Amino acid sequence: MNSDIGFHLLKPDPLIIVISGPSGVGKDAILNRMKEQKYPFEYITTLTTRAKRANEINNIDYCFVSIDEFQKLLKCDGFLEWANVYGNYYGVPKGPVKNAISKGQDTIIKVDVQGAATIKKILSEAVFIFIAPPSIAELSNRLIRRCTENTCDLELRLKTAKSELQQMYIFDYVIVNSSEKIDNAIEDIKAIITAEKCRANPRKISI
């Protein structure tokens, strides 16, 4: 009798990885570095009605649209999730996510904490990663350095950040991102994805 046991390793199902965290924590910097390093993910570009900042590129950082364009897509149930944040609309388009998953492509979605909570209700099998700052003081310094908020907006974002840090429990993983060690955060994300691919009971994504 042959005692050898044969294992048939199936290709893991595609993952949806939701990256979130407070404003200014470095989510864009992490994802931009991952794109530069050609990590094989489908990156979903969020639509927004806010004005484009000087250092941002349309359809790369965000897809900047008018309120009318946003509303048209909203009426067609075209968003996976959407919200009004600091007076501007943001939404994750549903179509690109469906297309990526149908092609077997791992997909990364960047949203705020409110958006992540919404997605978790409808896509509980996604992988939720919270990016945290080393401290509130460092987060404040980052927001000041990027010079995109006035004093009132800065105070509001820091107050919101403190509230968001208390919601880490809804996430699967937490990564602390130090501005000097962004590659460490990327290595942590890669390790999480590798571990998820090795699960005995893999996640099953259905949109």
Descriptive labels:
five-stranded parallel β-sheet, 39% helix, Rossmann fold, 207 residues, 7 helices
Structure notes:
With 207 residues, the chain is of the alpha/beta class. It has a single domain (16-197), classed as 3-Layer(aba) Sandwich (Rossmann fold), CATH 3.40.50. Helices cover 39% and strands 19% of the residues. It contains 7 helices and 9 strands, in the order βαβββαββαβαβααβα. The chain has a 5-stranded parallel β-sheet with strand order 2-7-1-8-9, sandwiched between helices. A 4-stranded mixed β-sheet has the order 4-3-6-5. Strand 5 and strand 6 form a beta hairpin. Helix 1 crosses helix 7 (182-197). The chain is globular and about 55 Å long. The termini are far apart. The relative contact order is 0.21.
SSE topology:
Layout (H helix, E strand, L loop, with lengths): L15 E5 L6 H10 L5 E3 L2 E2 L14 E2 L2 H9 L3 E7 L2 E6 H9 L4 E4 L2 H10 L4 E6 L3 H11 L4 H15 L7 E4 L5 H16 L10
Parallel strand pairs: 1-7, 1-8, 2-7, 3-4, 8-9
Antiparallel strand pairs: 3-6, 5-6
Helix pairs in contact: 1-7, 5-6
What's a quick, concise take on this entry?
The protein is of the alpha/beta class. It is built from seven helices and nine strands; from the N terminus they run E-H-E-E-E-H-E-E-H-E-H-E-H-H-E-H.
